[in-house]
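Q: I'm writing up a methods section and want to include an example of the input and output format. Could you take the sequence below and give the corresponding predicted structure tokens, formatted cleanly so I can copy it straight into the document?
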Amino acid sequence: MSRPLSLLAEERPDFAAIARWIPANARVLDLGCGDGSLLRYLKEVRAVRGYGVEISDADIVSCIANGLNVIQNDLESGLADFEDNAFDFVILSQTLQATRHTAQLVREMLRVGQQGIVSFPNFGHWKNRLSILNGRMPISPELPYQWYDTPNVHLCTLHDFEAFCREHRIEILDRRVMGGGREVSVLPNVFGSTAVYRFRRQA
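A: Here is the clean output for your methods example:
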């Protein structure tokens, strides 16, 4: 059974942040869409028209059960099935840190979409720093895995991602940083546990 939208928004505060940036009826591609929760949320609150891309058989079944358009594909193989500028927004939600060819995938996002949106756990959060100081890899709601079974291969901080954008000629249009379900404005790279960015190719 699908979870209520209010529960989804409570469990994933980045959903509401993403929805604020997307106008009604926008064309959306959700990469690594999982069970389709974000796409279902955006369809309900913004009436978006979109597709999800997912590799997991179980998640594909969940997406179809929720009435979502989903394509089974490995993100690491690229987005060659999609034409240039086919979407208004291409979203990579809580998946950036698990991609091996990050720069290539972000370039592809900005080829097939006018704008990109990513959300990711901030490795610079103070609790993660404290764990490292204590000699242990951090475990948190945003990073729930042990070091030996984590799917995450490229953890980063806010400063890391912003440097990446500068180096790859990507213009950051907006940023939301959250901690404990609230937006963080003071020392976000220290007190923010989740970051959400909206960006586009530099003119």
